[in-house]
Amino acid sequence: MSAMRSAVFDGDGCVHVDHTPQPRPVHGEVRVRLHGCGVCASNLPVWAGRPWFRYPFEPGAPGHEGWGEIDEVGDGVEEWRIGDRVALLSGRAYAEYDVAPASALARLPSKFASHALPGEPLACAMNIWRRSDIRPGQVVAVVGVGFIGALLIQLANHAGARVVALSRRPFARDVARDCGASDVFPTDDVHAAIGAVNELSGGGCARVIEAAGEQATLDIASGISGEGGRLVIAGYHQDGPRQVDMQQWNWRGLDVINAHERDPAVAARGLREAMEALEDGRIDPFPLITHRFPLDRIGEAFQALSSRPDGFLKAAVIA
Fold this sequence. Notes:
The chain is built from 9 helices and 15 strands. It has helices spanning 44-48, 119-132, 147-158, 170-179, 190-201, 215-223, 246-252, 264-279, 298-307, and strands spanning 3-11, 14-21, 29-39, 66-73, 85-88, 97-101, 105-107, 139-143, 162-166, 183-185, 205-210, 225-233, 255-258, 291-294, 315-318. Strands 3, 4, 5, 6, 7, 14 and 15 form a 7-stranded mixed sheet that branches. α2 crosses α8 and α5 packs parallel to α6 (215-223). It is globular.
């Protein structure tokens, strides 16, 4: 059996690259020669070595933001051909090859086929966007400006909303302006941030998207949601329970949406919609990918993600 290079996570901030067997597609699957994989903040606990994980991880896991070129097609697959450039929804993409169901792929737009294009977070952004129900003229706040938050600012600005962005990092606030935010605020002082946005919006925003996954950003997002508005939880809250001001939520009559999708069909639809949004100019992810690392330096990618040096927003590992 042919071998490939795969990242293997050992915990405690250790990851090494090993030679492992190439996967083979079964019925209904395709194999993709990966060109790269985005590095997702949700993987930080895996890299750090939290006690609820078992190590070593499966080779290539938990990489899930892969893109590349189909190099083998399994039985029963009619819609894909060897050589097609695709983004895929899979789980072992920190490697040179991965397999995925034929239904979990989207074709890369031809003019971007040679670009670094982590599709899964684009799909997340489109699914969050759909559930946010943003309309022209609304004041929309995005709390937390990472890769997905920046994409949502682009989408809201393109739709004719007035976008307010809040982030701890000055560089992220600069990114927010570049993506179309008309006003930006720091989040270091929670009460000051809430007061500034409520004064600007006249009592709260019609739509608020919390996109950082922290208690402080959830507090800010709750505090700037206007009466009858919609609070969308897009951040991945994975480090323990959260507290919310339920009286505030009740009094303001908020619609609270948890915008994480777990249905594979919904995720795949978001991936296809992302390729359409990319082609028609509603999103431009390429300036947001600020750092690239070869596969054998994947540990450095996670160190950068953990420390977020100035100028960092999103890293990709190039296979």
